[in-house]
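Hi support team,

I'm filing this because I wasn't sure whether my run with flavin-adenine dinucleotide finished correctly. The job status page said complete, but I'd like someone to confirm that the output block is well-formed before I use it downstream. Pasting the exact inputs I used:
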Amino acid sequence: MSKSIPILPKWFAKIFAGPYVAGENMDLALEHVASLNKKGYAATIDILGEHTRDTVKATSITEDYCSLLKKIDDMSLDCNLSIKPSHVGLDISRKTAMQNFKKIINIANTYSNFIRLDMEDSSQTDNTLEIFNDCNSYYDKTGVVIQAYLKRSIKDLEKLADSSFNARICKGIYKENRTISYHDPEKIRNNFIRLAEIMISRDSYVCFATHDLVLIDKILSIIKNKKIKNDKYEFQVLYGVPMGGKLEELIRQNHKVRVYVPFGSEWYEYSIRRIKENPNIASYVLKNLFKKNSY
Ligand SMILES: Cc1cc2nc3c(=O)[nH]c(=O)nc-3n(C[C@H](O)[C@H](O)[C@H](O)COP(=O)(O)OP(=O)(O)OC[C@H]3O[C@@H](n4cnc5c(N)ncnc54)[C@H](O)[C@@H]3O)c2cc1C
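And here is everything the job wrote out:
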């Protein structure tokens, strides 16, 4: 089923996109966030899209992120932003992306909100970390992402992690060469834990972004054993990924959970990627077609 998804017409693919995407427009996404907040989840919004090659478009996306910050504040939502550097101009130049991030950060500063730079493929790791360092020296409510599949990540983290550092650790989603990345799932998990332990030992704020229930349980036992306070970490998941009741359990146990909420007209490519990542999703979506999302 998953292999046939990319050739399906958009109207049909939309059925599968439903659980993963919070609509095509900002107001709908904000409604989803409000409803998540009511259920005890924090959120982070991402406008779908990447690899913007047109300066005018990069500026317009930047303005959309600025409007989002205002609306989030107007609605008093517990929600920050996650932004792909290539979406706001990194493929045009680092300078363009930096200028656009500065505009967003200025508005974030007005509302005291937080901005995270998502991490893309390894060709952009250095650029992204440099933009992050620049942004962070200017406004400290900024964070970045560290990918556990990259062999370089431990060294990156050793340079970055201190008590004011805030990073999302995730496994990493792009296809990377074996010379620079781990492919064995167990090695990736182990590296995830090592990265988490470095951040914990340096008193950084850690965001554990995973749907891997075994990994979540390992993280929970580290949190318990090291008696880490719940204002020093959070769990993060992608909107719509089935978690079999784990999120509700985490909330009940007083752990912070943030849901990554993507929205926008470029939902098609994003959803196809999600479905390819988990072929079971196709049957899951069919089974749940007439049920409401569990969030
Ligand atoms: C909040 C958040 C932000 C992220 N940001 C980035 C980023 O900036 N850069 C980056 O490279 N990667 C990012 N990722 C993706 C991440 O790197 C992984 O590719 C993805 O989360 C799958 O890894 P996993 O840890 O969930 O474990 P896996 O072992 O891959 O998955 C565990 C279980 O969850 C299911 N599952 C996992 N992901 C999905 C999905 N998307 N759709 C349906 N089922 C799924 C799997 O089928 C499996 O059953 C992010 C992930 C999250 C949760």
